[in-house]
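Title: Prediction job returns without error message
Component: structure pipeline
Severity: low
Priority: P3
Assignee: unassigned

Description:
Job completed but the reporter wants confirmation the result is attached to the right record. Sequence as submitted:
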Amino acid sequence: MTEHIFEIVIMLLGTAILGFLIAWFWRNNKIEELEQYIRAIEDKNNRLQAEYNKIEQKLIDCQTEKKKKEAVIGEFEKRLAECQANLIVSDLNLFKTESEIKKIVKPKKQSKAIKSVKTDKISDNLTKIEGIGPKISSILKSAGIDTYKKLSLTKPTKISELLIQAGGNSYNRFDPATWPNQAKLADQAKWDELKKWQDELKGGKKE
């Protein structure tokens, strides 16, 4: 009887030891798997962090470049505004000077025979038309359009053709749509009305 009890105790002890060993190996295996999983997550996190740092640096570079370009554009717009203001002042001074000269220099009386004969103007200052500069004025005068009257009677499409023929395709950027009507006001000496209209234009075009 004692021998049977001893065998049962030995079997129970062996079972306990075997269960302990199985549990210990299973636990170690699970711990190793978890450690591997954690390392994989940490590696992935490091890669994502590195990519995020690169993207953040690119964003900072883009913002810096944007600020530089905005500064350049702001300086250019400032200079353009100064040039436009100086041009307007020059035009006003020129207009005042011409008006004062006309008041001082009175035209001589002409005979009825002479008054009945309508003479053409020699030339007009076409640069008073918004959108026309010295170069375009020279091109138009070379084509025979040298007075406000002639310009007012010329179609915008014809003006564009003349500019492109003389200066090339770069003159496509100019829009002469308002030039004839501006010239008509100038020919009629409606300077105040012309000036008011020109204030609404930009480069000879409606804004």
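Comment from assignee: result matches the submitted record. The chain has two domains: 1-106, 124-206.
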